[in-house]
Design goal:
The chain has eight helices and five strands. By secondary structure, the protein is of the alpha/beta class.
Length: 201
């Protein structure tokens, strides 16, 4: 299997928005991507247009040139990165540009001139990294919520232990039973113990 065949083995083609100000390079890039099995949704010639097209089409990936009029690719990437992963194309390999692209959240970087065999691995890496980062962010949010729940339950246990002269396991059992009886999450029962005014009628 060649590198270009990777795209065609996906259950549904990766949907891409391309932004490149040089028309000839943009046409070649789009042709390469389409031949490799990718779905090019829209094409932009500047960074501002790229942002509009990404918002309108919600692609799986945006491929942006660094040097573009109106708004450069890295500035556009800063706006786009919350919507989809970004792959950056450039003829420049200066450290400063690479650092700016990384700080903007760019997932992969390809130097011109490039072939489809350069692009496909970079596309796969960009999408994979973005997916991992999103999963990690969701997991962290979940961990944060679990930590907050545990803190709330611990506070409620302390109040019950003092008010009802219970041991810690007994206080936990009290919250657990109240939650089961009322068909509420334990966190809600704990909040009600801490702030009785918060109990719904």
């Amino acid at each position: 299997m060649t590198t270009a065949d990777v795209a065609s083995t996906r259950p549904s083609p990766v949907r891409i928005v391309v932004a490149e100000d040089e028309a000839l390079i943009r046409m070649d890039l789009v042709e390469m991507l389409v031949e490799a099995g990718y779905d090019v949704l829209a094409q932009a010639s500047d960074g501002a247009q790229a942002i509009e097209l990404v918002r309108a089409h919600k692609p799986d990936l945006a491929i942006l040139d660094v040097k573009m009029p109106i708004l450069d690719g890295i500035s556009a990437a800063e706006e786009i990165i919350s919507l989809c992963p970004v792959l950056m194309l450039t003829a420049f390999s200066q450290r400063e540009l690479v650092d700016r692209a990384r700080d903007a959240g760019v997932m992969a970087y390809v130097l011109k001139p490039f072939t489809i065999n350069d692009l496909v691995p970079a596309i796969e890496i960009a999408i994979s990294r973005h997916t991992q980062m999103r999963s990690l962010a969701d997991e962290v949010a979940d961990l944060h919520q679990r930590l907050e729940t545990r803190k709330t339950i611990d506070r409620a246990k302390g109040i019950l232990m003092a008010a009802l002269n219970l041991t810690e396991p007994q206080a936990f059992s009290w919250i657990e039973k109240a939650a089961m009886d009322r068909r509420l999450p334990m966190r809600e029962v704990a909040v009600a113990v801490i702030s009785p005014d918060a109990v719904p009628d």
